[in-house]
């Protein structure tokens, strides 16, 4: 049956011969949003002016601007997410390492609360 137990790896789609859309983060979404931006920009300019060649120029410009804009937005959010993951991973490792020892910050707080009473 098709779809069940497919062991064949999927062929990657390379845009312009070098950008592997499947493995590069944010590339797929950027190209999709860029094509929608191109359609909206070109069609909008054509409906406003009825100039075909100029609307195609605007469509290409809309594709480039939308693709690059979303690419940078997505990569920035991806970098922020990786930083948060790294910080969380370090916090969990420290919690596991120091839990129950004399270096445990939670234990120091309870010891200070006991001495204040």
From TrEMBL:
Its main location: mitochondrion. The keyword Oxidoreductase does not apply. It comes from the Eukaryota. The keyword Zinc-finger does not apply. GO terms for cellular component: mitochondrial inner membrane. GO terms for biological process: mitochondrial respiratory chain complex IV assembly. It is found in: Mitochondrion inner membrane. Keywords: Membrane, Mitochondrion, Mitochondrion inner membrane, Transmembrane, Transmembrane helix. Belongs to the COX20 family. This is Cytochrome c oxidase assembly protein COX20, mitochondrial. It comes from Melopsittacus undulatus (Budgerigar). The lineage of its organism: Eukaryota, Metazoa, Chordata, Craniata, Vertebrata.
């Amino acid at each position: 049956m098709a779809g069940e137990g497919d062991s064949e790896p999927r062929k990657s789609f390379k845009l312009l011969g070098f950008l592997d859309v499947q493995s590069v983060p944010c590339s797929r979404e950027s190209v999709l949003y860029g094509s929608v931006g191109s359609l909206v920009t070109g069609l909008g300019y054509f409906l406003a002016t009825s100039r075909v060649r100029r609307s195609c120029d605007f469509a290409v410009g809309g594709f480039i601007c939308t693709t690059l804009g979303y690419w940078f937005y997505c990569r920035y959010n991806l970098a922020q997410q990786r930083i948060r993951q790294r910080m969380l991973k370090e916090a969990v490792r420290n919690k596991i390492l120091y839990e129950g020892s004399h270096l445990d910050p939670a234990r120091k707080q309870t010891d200070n609360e006991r001495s204040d009473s």
